[in-house]
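Support request, please re-run this one:
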Amino acid sequence: MTPDDLRETSAALAGRALELPELAGAGTVAAYVSVGSEPGTLALLDALRARGVRVLLPALLPDNDLDWGAYESEGSLARVQHGGRMALFEPAGERLGPGAVTTADAVLLPGLAVDARGMRLGRGGGSYDRVLARLERAGAHPALVVLLYDSEVVERVPAEPHDRPVAAVVTPSGVRRFRPGS
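Re-run finished. Output below.
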């Protein structure tokens, strides 16, 4: 994709996501800053902040768990290199602890693909599996939404017993919702 394609895709994704009732009524949204070839999220993060939404972003811990910090603007991010893996953009300010995600009304998840059941394929590090388990233990039930390109919505991805389906996938061309147990 060209830089113009990426900007257009990012704007379309933000527009689609902002139409979600789960985000329209949210006071706090846990999200992430896209990296590499992931669909761009900065336009969405800025639009949520402009609405007065508290946006939490992850910071990767040495054990692959996630701590959280508040997003203020693109200038509030630090580029952090984690060993031999890719660099991530993380909140530069105060850390709120791994449990901060339990205050979110919606959690926007990264992924490589999602299938017709709403099962999300991640990168394999288990960070978001820990987040989802933490939400379950806390009795928190935020809307779970994955942000992907249209081509990343597939028929089937591998799933393990601990995997949890998402409520919806947002792509630049639209939103697809999933029924529990489908």
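The longest strand covers residues 54-60. The helical segments are 3-18, 21-24, 42-50, 127-138.
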